Structures are given as structure tokens and as C-alpha cells.
Amino acid sequence: MVYDSLLLFALLMVAALPVVVTVGENSEFVKSPAYTLYLYTVSFLFFGWFWTHGGQTLGMRSWRLQVIRSDGFALGWDSALIRFLSATLSLCLFGIGFFWILFNSEKLAWHDHLSKTHILYNPDLGKKKNTG
């Protein structure tokens, strides 16, 4: 999460730049819910794209983790949206949904349970292939 947070922070800075340059950093728009929703949507697109294209964010790739649906298939945008929204809820509740893995027999966080996904550890995911 730390790796992905750093990447997301950089992306949000880039996404905010055209808005701030266009309307100014002290404008009412930058203080509005619409601007917050814009940045939230950028955040969803960041995570959603990685989850639906290989099941790994860059941070997950470092740890050789992959998110898949419980039926073994790759996530679609619908699963990614449910996962993202429920992870947001978990964060808003002081991370309790993430800590839930400590008490869940299947080691599922709230967002895994609600989106019917789970995290796999695969030691072969990050290895370079030997081409001979």
C-alpha cells in the first residue's frame, strides 16, 4: 500500500496541475466536491486499470501479489469498482476493514469479501524469464 500510495500521490499531483493552472489554487472549484470527485475518480482509474489488466498494481508486483476474483478469473471493472469503494469505506473507518484479515479465517479484508476477490502470493510473478 505504501508503494502504491506514493505512485498515486504523484499521479494526483499531475492530475491536479491542469485544474489548478486553469482556475487557480484558491478558486471555489478547487474547494468544491466536484474537484474532490475528480481526484477520487482519477484514484479509481489508477487502481482499476491495474486490477483489470493483470491484477497487480506496481506495489503489488514488487511483493508478487495478485488480486483475482474468487472464481479464479481476472477482475472486471465492476469488481474493481466494488473493491475500490469498499476499500475507501474501510479507510474512512480507520482501516478496520483492512484489519479484518486478522480475524477472518480466509484472511479476507472487507473489500475482498464484498467484491468477491482475494489476493494471491505467487513467487513466480515478478521473476524475469530466462530466455536461454
Compute the number of strand runs.
Answer: 2
List low-pLDDT spans.
Answer: none
Helix content: 55-70%
Helix run count: 6
Proportion of strand residues: 5-15%
Report the C-alpha radius of gyration, rounded: 17 Å
Described by the principal axes of the CA atoms, the overall outline is: globular
Q: Helix/strand-derived class?
A: mainly alpha
Quote the distance from N terminus to C terminus: 35 Å
Strand order of the largest sheet: 1-2
What does the main sheet amount to?
2 strands, antiparallel
Order of helices and strands: HHHEHHHE
Q: How many domains in all?
A: 1
Mean pLDDT: 92
What does the model show?
This protein is mainly alpha-helical. It is 55% helix and 8% strand. It has six helices and two strands; from the N terminus they run αααβαααβ. It has helices spanning 2-23, 33-52, 58-62, 77-92, 96-99, 110-115; strands spanning 65-69, 117-121. It has a two-stranded antiparallel sheet. The longest helix is centred in the first third of the chain and has 22 residues, at 2-23.
Tell me briefly what this model is.
The chain has helices spanning 2-23, 33-52, 58-62, 77-92, 96-99, 110-115; strands at residues 65-69, 117-121. With 132 residues, it is mainly alpha-helical.
Give the helices and strands, then pairings.
Layout: H1 2-23, H2 33-52, H3 58-62, E1 65-69, H4 77-92, H5 96-99, H6 110-115, E2 117-121
Antiparallel strand pairs: 1-2
Helix pairs in contact: 1-2, 2-4
